[in-house]
């Protein structure tokens, strides 16, 4: 392992944690150990590696890096964010109850309701920003609370420390999807949660060229259970994926600073635009979760959602198809800016009645603000919104 530790700053750990120059060649970058098996001097006598599904040195370096960034004892990496969530759900048993927030990534909702509910795990979907509703939900035994903060796509903010305290008092554990914030902006384990999940596909990778997921924790039983799932279910990232993710973490801090700066400028532009009705961005002073976000985050992230005056689908479609710098695509967190229609794209698997109940309008537009020049991003949106004005 490298000689950096928790006393070093985030940027130093992002570049060095979990890694050291290759002892054989001196290569400063962690090699891509493209192998399926490992030669052993005797049966079951090795250096911790016997079969690549179970462990791979490139993956080990990535796990050490992510654990350091999240202030965790361990990180366990998977082939995708959904695969990471799946590993947690496989640790549930029939009769377990999960309380989940009503503003979730559509893939999480689909996995919960269409897969694991059939196996006897129950899911209560509530507004966890409403602590009274949460307290009522916790009156019945629950195994876990699962939520995102900021949430996808409405950028809701949940008081992580307060919810963790309430959950633990009731005998439940807490898992937070920290994909939107990244460990650069928010470290939920420091606020009392048990598990932190990342779709490393997004900001961790940062270049829209790799798919992955991770769970970070300080709970040794969870580490044992999650590594059992790695060995048994095999939803692991390949060594090239891990190499690309390690490349991504090295610039996470500088990328996130630019994402945040650009998003603040874009959000302020949208607030002042006459065709924009509502802007969802926790950096705005009138955002319902602004004070909590300012307390538990170091900045407000690069994600924005908004609706248009009149709430007409034809206007939303005109904006979605009218940008040039913002590309119409699913996913988020890459260096390039993306524009998305949650109702028909990222959240299409959530039933319409559930979406509307959660406040996700059919005309909602989501932006992943990249690191291009701020003026170009605003000019691009200005052209698209001008077309709506002429409609």
What fold name goes in the CATH topology slot of the largest domain?
A: Aspartate Aminotransferase, domain 2
Total separate domains = 2
Q: How far apart are the first and last residues' alpha carbons, in Å?
A: 60 Å
The CATH class of the largest domain is identified as: Alpha Beta
- The level of helicity is 25-40%
Overall geometry comes to globular
Task: Give structural notes.
- This protein has 391 residues and is an alpha/beta fold.
- It has 2 domains: 10-249, Aspartate Aminotransferase, domain 2 (3-Layer(aba) Sandwich), CATH 3.40.640.10; 252-390, Aspartate Aminotransferase, domain 1 (Alpha-Beta Complex), CATH 3.90.1150.10.
- The chain is 37% helix and 14% strand.
- It is built from 14 helices and 12 strands.
- The protein has helices spanning 10-16, 57-69, 81-89, 106-115, 131-137, 160-169, 182-185, 220-233, 239-249, 252-272, 290-296, 313-320, 352-358, 374-390; strands at residues 74-78, 97-101, 122-126, 144-148, 173-177, 195-198, 213-217, 276-280, 303-308, 327-328, 338-340, 365-368.
- The chain has a 7-stranded mixed sheet, sandwiched between helices. A 5-stranded mixed sheet has the order 8-9-12-11-10, covered by helices on one side.
- Helix 12 packs antiparallel against helix 14.
- The longest helix has 21 residues, at 252-272.
- The model has no long low-confidence stretch (mean pLDDT 95).
In terms of topology, how is this protein built?
Elements: H1 10-16, H2 57-69, E1 74-78, H3 81-89, E2 97-101, H4 106-115, E3 122-126, H5 131-137, E4 144-148, H6 160-169, E5 173-177, H7 182-185, E6 195-198, E7 213-217, H8 220-233, H9 239-249, H10 252-272, E8 276-280, H11 290-296, E9 303-308, H12 313-320, E10 327-328, E11 338-340, H13 352-358, E12 365-368, H14 374-390
Parallel strand pairs: 2-3, 2-4, 4-5, 5-6, 10-11
Antiparallel strand pairs: 1-7, 6-7, 8-9, 9-12, 11-12
């Amino acid at each position: 392992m490298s000689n950096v530790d928790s006393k070093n700053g985030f940027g130093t750990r992002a570049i060095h944690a979990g890694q050291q120059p290759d002892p054989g060649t001196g290569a400063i970058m962690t090699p891509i150990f493209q192998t399926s098996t490992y030669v052993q001097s005797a049966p079951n006598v090795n250096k911790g590696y016997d079969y690549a599904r179970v462990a791979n040195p490139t993956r080990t370096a990535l796990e050490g890096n992510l654990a350091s960034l999240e202030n965790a004892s361990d990180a366990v990496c998977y082939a995708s964010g959904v695969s990471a969530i799946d590993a947690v759900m496989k640790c549930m048993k029939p009769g377990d109850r999960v309380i989940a927030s009503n503003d979730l990534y559509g893939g999480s909702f689909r996995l919960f309701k269409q897969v694991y509910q059939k196996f006897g795990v129950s899911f209560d979907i509530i507004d966890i920003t409403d602590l009274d509703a949460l307290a009522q939900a916790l009156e019945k035994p629950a195994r876990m609370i699962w939520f995102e903060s900021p949430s996808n796509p409405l950028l809701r903010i949940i008081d992580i420390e307060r919810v963790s305290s309430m959950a633990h008092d009731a005998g439940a554990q807490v898992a937070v999807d920290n994909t939107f914030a990244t460990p650069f902006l928010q470290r939920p384990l420091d606020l009392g949660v048990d598990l932190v999940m990342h779709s490393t596909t997004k900001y961790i990778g940062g270049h829209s060229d790799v798919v992955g997921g991770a769970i970070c924790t300080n709970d040794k039983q969870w580490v044992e259970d999650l590594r059992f799932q790695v060995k048994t279910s095999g939803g692991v990232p390949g060594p090239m994926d891990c190499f690309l993710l390690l490349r991504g973490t090295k610039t996470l801090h500088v990328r996130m600073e630019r994402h945040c700066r650009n998003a603040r400028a874009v959000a302020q532009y949208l607030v002042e635009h006459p065709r924009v009705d509502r802007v969802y961005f926790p950096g705005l002073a009138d955002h319902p979760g602004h004070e909590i976000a300012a307390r538990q985050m170091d900045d407000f992230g690069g994600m924005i959602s908004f609706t248009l005056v009149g709430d007409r689908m034809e206007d939303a479609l005109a904006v979605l198809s009218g940008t040039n710098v913002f590309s119409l695509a699913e996913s988020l967190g890459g260096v390039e800016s993306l524009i998305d229609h949650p109702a028909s794209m990222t959240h299409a698997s959530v039933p319409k009645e559930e979406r509307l109940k959660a406040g996700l309008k059919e005309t909602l537009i989501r932006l992943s603000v990249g690191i291009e020049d701020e003026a170009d991003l605003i000019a691009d949106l200005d052209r698209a919104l001008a077309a709506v004005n002429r409609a």
